[in-house]
Amino acid sequence: MARVMTAPASSPSSPSSSWRRRPWVRWATPLLIVAVLAVLPLVGTEFQNETLARIGVFAVAVLGLNVVMGYTGQVSLGQIFFLGFGAYVTAYGVSQDWNIVLVFVLACLLPAAAGLLVALAAARLGGLAIAMVTIALPIVGVPLAKRLNEYTGGSQGLSARFAESPEGSGLYDDQWTLYLVIAIGGVVFLLTHFLVRGKYGRAFAIVKGNENVAASMGISPYRYKVLAFTIASAIGGVSGFLYMLVIQYTSPETMSFGHSIELLAAMVIGGAASIVGSLLGGAFYVLVPQLTNQVDASLTALLQGAILLVVLFVLPGGLASLPRALTRGRRRLRAGRGPAAPPTTPSSTPGSGTAAEQPETERQGHA
Amino acid sequence: MGEFVQLVVDGLSTGSVYAAIALAIVLVHSATGLVNFAQGGMAVLAAYVAWVLTNQSVPLVVAVLASIVFSFVLGAVVERYLMRRFERGDPDTAVVVTIGLLTLITGIAGWLWSYNNQQFPSLFPLDTVSFLGVSISIRSIGTTLSIVAVMIVLQLLFVRTKLGLALRAVAINPQSAAFSGLPVERLLMVGWGLAAVLGAVAGALVAPQLTLTPGMLDNALVYALAAVILGGLTSPVGVVIAAWMIGVLENLAAVYVPFIGHDLKIAVPFILLFVVLVVRPQGLFGRKTVVRV
């Protein structure tokens, strides 16, 4: 399944067979994706549309996490907090009958401002401090949401409906919602795609690779970490807006610690530093609990932990790197070097060697 | 006044639990350079082992001792078969591995023993003693003293024994330690085992109060991480002091600052943390480290 989903969307720069580099393919692929996305809501059942919309919501949340963690290399355990914050802002704004565009802008800006504040403090410590500080966000966020019950409705939560399909369009509500998710999510994905391909993306990659090299090139690791975290928070806020659009209800439980970890697992399993991986991560986040609940609900956490560890061991690039790993394995097979090795990507697993062949460089990230 | 003293003593006791987990994190970090987010989860698993044994009518002290042995083995096994691959690589990947381990352990505990709260018998009586006209709970004093005792034993192990010397050598420079013939890999396993033992002691001491659930130590982990940042990753003494400070301050804030109250007291260490990070990023007691390119 992963292969089918990744094939049309993978970019021309990825190693691929020659047909994908032809100009007409480069033009036709995006057109095809747009066409499929335009038709999709019309042909699916209500349940399929709702599932797809939820995948869209969490794909955006995972994308935000990818900006700070996949592309900039700063582990964040607080992404769900920004989703929850955005959802609360949206719900409150809708309940006060504010203009929906204003609500959307606030749902981006307020989480971004919160993210900026957190990052300004957390990024001052190098290494893993961001992970250690952001783990507090969901754990403080839940009691905080319960406490501020004037705005959040306390433990009861808030519900809001604001996406009835416009009259005369002939669309059902679920179809209209899915169109909105595709449109807003699509714009966010496109913007992020350009962000990580451009100047900022290269700066993020250097900060991830080696902070000292980045600093020596005039790229302040501190500033770019704060920037990446703020952008991730803003995208988290957008996903919170979409969350209200689709699920129409939020409570303190939305931003629980468990969900935060699931989001991180979804990102790693989908594929770090990969746009397609974010989509796969969103799908994983929504579909796997659905599947495991059918088997045994108490197994969900166990399976998620196990899958995460297995992926880290055999496929560190996540599901998005599966086609490349398979191609490499096949090429190795063809080269006649004996049976194919398990599909690891050695370039991204510096720790895969035995302890005897440790890299000579000092550990980084303790400055 | 009596309330104040009681709050401080209770704060020291919860602070000791945070201190034990924080110290375990520092121990693992100094040996392998990574932060183990599953430290609390491993301690919960040990507490469940002790709980299962007490249900088989094994005496509580024996059950806790058995869970401590179990933890040592668990820590060593986790180091050998899970973490070793990731130890000298990208620290961020290793952190994600420990988060996966936390999810897995929580999942295993929830699957085997359900997510419901279980009663865990207390090692200390629930009475209070009167001291200078102030009544203080024995459990708080007992918890604090037990953890301090474990810390002193560990400190002696590190400073006075050959094993401790070898462990310190590995922490300072694994390559040189290997060149001088130390079994680095086995010592790393011992280091992880000792850290897990610290966690197990904390888990057994705090379980009666929190009641046993798979997520019992999630909050304690957050406090411990705050203590680690406040004290500085390089300073075990600083971490313990920071953990006590957090325990006492959050208890006092919960009672004397109406806006915070009991539900928001977890925000206290983080308000503290933000102030400290802005003023003194290396932590209160940590040293600035310089990295060569």
UniProtKB/TrEMBL annotation, chain A:
InterPro entries: ABC_transp_permease, LivM-like. Signal peptide: none annotated. It is a multi-pass membrane protein. It is found in: Cell membrane. Residues 1-20, 333-367 are annotated as: Disordered. Keywords: Cell membrane, Membrane, Transmembrane, Transmembrane helix. This is Amino acid/amide ABC transporter membrane protein 2, HAAT family. The chain crosses the membrane at residues 24-45, 51-68, 100-120, 127-145, 176-196, 226-251, 263-287, 299-322. It comes from Blastococcus haudaquaticus. GO terms for molecular function: branched-chain amino acid transmembrane transporter activity. Its main location: membrane. Residues 7-18, 346-356 have a biased composition (Low complexity). It comes from the Bacteria. One of its GO terms (cellular component) is plasma membrane.
UniProtKB/TrEMBL annotation, chain B:
The keyword Secreted does not apply. The chain crosses the membrane at residues 6-27, 60-82, 94-114, 134-158, 190-208, 220-246, 266-285. Signal peptide: none annotated. InterPro entries: ABC_transp_permease, BCAA_transport_permease. It is found in: Cell membrane. One of its GO terms (biological process) is amino acid transport. It comes from the Bacteria. Its main location: membrane. GO terms for molecular function: transmembrane transporter activity. It is a multi-pass membrane protein. Keywords: Amino-acid transport, Cell membrane, Membrane, Transmembrane, Transmembrane helix, Transport. It holds the Pfam family BPD_transp_2. One of its GO terms (cellular component) is plasma membrane. Belongs to the binding-protein-dependent transport system permease family. LivHM subfamily. This is Amino acid/amide ABC transporter membrane protein 1, HAAT family.
